[in-house]
Structure formats: C-alpha cells, structure tokens
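QA checklist item 7 of 12: single-chain prediction sanity check.
[x] sequence parsed
[x] length recorded as 65
[x] structure emitted
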Amino acid sequence: MSEQFRDRLPRLAALSARILGWRPNDFWTATPAELAMSLADPADPVAAPMGRDELNTLMERDSHG
C-alpha cells in the first residue's frame, strides 16, 4: 500500500522545524510547493529560481501561442 501525503505530515513537520526552524504555524500556512522548495537541494537545477532571460523566453512563447 502506498503511503498517503497525510501519513507523511508528521515527518515533514518535524523536518521543517528541525532543518528550517519553522514553527507549527509556518508549516501549516506553507504550500506544498513552498515546503518542497525550502527542503530542496540548492544545487538541484529544478529548485533554482527562474532567471529573467528564461521568463522573457516563456513570455515570448506565450504571446505567440
């Protein structure tokens, strides 16, 4: 049986407190994406913030689609 997201919540809350210094309210008001980005490896290119050039490219593509 696969683990449900709700089953991972205690572990994720503990990680966010221990690693990020988040208080319970910080954890519960964060989105899953914010939590994932906060816990991601900074060297991971997926976790890297989008640069201006990449944003401009996406906006250009969108204006032609």
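[x] summary fact logged: The two ends are 42 Å apart (CA to CA).
[ ] second reviewer sign-off
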